[in-house]
Write a structure and sequence with these properties.
340 residues, 2 domains, globular
Length: 340
């Protein structure tokens, strides 16, 4: 019986080189794979699914989300290169997670919507390689629409990181959010402030969230806002439907964006203990022409009445059933701006 040949240094070295080459070939093959490109045209199924998406959102039909998701997912599987379809799927997953206060109790699996939202934003309007490429270029040529999606994507990363206690994912979400702010501050300063509104009221992250909301006001009006008395009446003449500042007002996509913005800002100020300033912010919501048709007027009026009492309620880590919640954790976290 022959004895096995002993391994020599040269044999081990050759084996290591072969293994490295194999690994290198795999990496090279992945790197050289063709990029996923967007479809030039859209299918009829995608257009129909989009119509259902907008009908569901503008009706505030939270229970209709599964039906809209089914239609959009079918359209996406038929054309996985359609970025708009992918974005709308991602947004529905954000909505499902964001208004989980409607579910009593919310099932543990609700957290999976953060993962799915992130996946569809990566798969469609913000493929991960594209995100990194744009980040390296500081978004010099980024279209505002893409920057808006980037803010949503960052929010889903932060939610996923927080759920799974994944610090690397959380940091990636935070810095992606900062990139989105640089790309489209008029929109993503709000996204940054709103996303972080659930942080502890006395922490640095919450103070940063409030600062983002103040900065959002200032980029919308082009000047410093009086932070002791932020009466917005004198700025109403600036209302526009054109350019980046259109997102500071009401529009087709978010017919009550203005009212929702000031309701949320008032809530955040109440949580921080700035009750008098919060009341001014709440009253700003009533300046919109569309305010009389807003479904959440009653919520705003209750906020004005109960602002001082709500300080403790908004700070509670686990609100009691039926207790008022800060807008970002409420049943109208999304539809407060988007419901007709």
């Amino acid at each position: 019986m022959k004895r096995p040949m002993p391994l020599t240094f040269s044999m081990v070295a050759v084996a290591a080189v072969v293994a490295a080459l194999a690994a290198g070939c795999a990496s090279l093959a992945v790197w050289a794979a063709p990029a996923k490109t967007a479809s030039v045209t859209r299918t009829e199924a995608a257009e129909r699914a989009d119509a259902l998406f907008w009908t569901t959102l503008h009706a505030g039909d939270y229970e209709g989300i599964p039906r809209a998701l089914t239609a959009l997912t079918a359209a996406y599987l038929a054309d996985p290169r359609d970025p708009v379809t992918a974005a709308h799927i991602g947004w529905l997953h954000i909505w499902r997670l964001g208004e989980r206060a409607r579910l009593d109790p919310a099932p543990p699996g609700i957290t999976d919507h953060a993962v799915l939202a992130r996946k569809y934003f990566e798969a469609g309007p913000l493929r991960h390689d594209r995100v990194l490429d744009l980040a390296h270029k500081h978004f010099a040529s980024l279209r505002p629409g893409e920057a808006r999606y980037l803010g949503f994507y960052a929010s889903s990363l932060l939610a996923e990181g927080n759920i799974h206690k994944d610090e690397k994912l959380t940091r990636r979400g935070y810095f992606t959010l900062q990139d989105s702010v640089r790309a489209f501050p008029e929109f993503n300063l709000f996204t940054a402030g709103y996303t972080m509104s659930g942080q502890a009221w006395d922490g640095d992250s919450y103070r940063e969230a409030l600062e983002n909301m103040w900065r959002n006001l200032e980029v919308c009006v082009g000047e410093r806002v009086d932070r002791a008395n932020p009466d917005y009446a004198r700025f109403m003449r600036l209302e526009t439907r054109e350019g980046p500042r259109r997102v500071c007002w009401n529009g087709e996509i978010a017919p009550h964006n203005f009212e929702g913005f000031f309701l949320n800002f008032g809530d955040m100020l109440v949580k921080s203990g700035q009750v008098d300033t919060a009341r001014v912010m709440y009253r700003n919501a009533t300046l919109a022409r569309e305010y009389p048709t807003w479904s959440y007027r009653g919520v705003l009026e209750a906020r004005l009445r109960d602002a001082a009492v709500n300080v403790a309620a908004f700070r509670a880590a686990n609100p009691a059933p039926g207790a008022p919640r800060i807008m970002g954790a409420s049943r109208f976290a999304c539809v407060g701006c988007h419901q007709r």
